[in-house]
Every structure is written in C-alpha cells, then in structure tokens.
Amino acid sequence: MGQIDPTAWVAPTAVVTGDVTIGPHSRVLHHAVLNGDLGPVVIGSEVVVMEHALLRGRADHPLHVGDAVLVGPHTHLNGTRVDDEVFIATGVAMFPGSRAGAGCELRINSVLHVNSVLAAGTVVPIGWIAAGQPAQLFPPDRHDELWAVQEPLDFPGTVYGVPRGTSMREIMRRQCRAYGPPAD
Length: 184
Fold this sequence. Notes:
A hairpin with a 4-residue loop joins strand 18 (about 130) and strand 19 (about 135-140). The protein has three helices and 19 strands. It is of the alpha/beta class.
C-alpha cells in the first residue's frame, strides 16, 4: 500500500483511500479525493492537488502524477500519467491510458482523451479536446473530425472493459460491482 511523506500535507476534509502515495512537500487541499481502491495513485513531490479534484487509479492504468504539478480544482484524473511540471487548470478531464508530457498546459475545461498522448510542452486551449497518439487538438465545434480520431481509441473497452455498443444496463451492472463496498 501507499504512504504519505511526512513533509506532505493533506487537508482534514480531503479523502485519501486505498493504495495512495503522496510525495515530499505535496499538498492535498480541502475536499479533494485521491482514490486508490481500484488501482494505485502516485503523487510526486511539490504537487498541489486543489479543492474538489478527483484522482482515481485503475488496476490496468495506475494514476501517476510527476513532480511540480498543479492539479486544479474540479479536475478529473482517471488512470492517466502526468509528467513533471504540468499545469492542469480548473475542470480538466484526463482519461485512462492518457499521458501529458513534461511542461504541458491543459487549460480550463480541456480534455485529454482515453489512450491519447500529449507531447511535451503542448498547450490545450480552454475547452478543447486532445485525442490520438500523438494527440491532435480539436475545438468543441469539430466533433466529426474529433470522432474520427476518438472512436478507434476505444473508450468503452479501456474504461469499462466492454465492446462499443454494450448496453448501459450491463455497463452499470459492472460499475456497481466495481464500486461496491470495500472488502474487509
């Protein structure tokens, strides 16, 4: 299981559960959730995880955040890898199998899609979507072009372990089992 470095600080209202490691001098602010119940969460040194951020590890996609990273408020990092010195603004979503290279900026409400790789130093503009390997950048109004890149990245297979077209009833049955009460 993980550990919290003695020089790190976790706010009393934050939730840290499961296999979570927090590195030296890092800070986890109020109401952030670091969930390592389904897979490891590793936070490097001098990282700030701001209020209401959700960081989740997955068995097949551990969550790894490098050193000197800002994780903004209301972000969702799920089974992703964040290299050193990345700026993750408010409301960013990063999905399983994705990776943000060193020095990237993901601006407000941007998305790094499942199984997508953002080259070091890339800036994703406010509200834009990055998808592909290497990631291409799409404004929200170019959905058809985005879908051509996004569909083969296999969101349902990567996130839910099912083929595209599986009913929501089956997906939610599986999700309810996965997020059930922790085993004693």
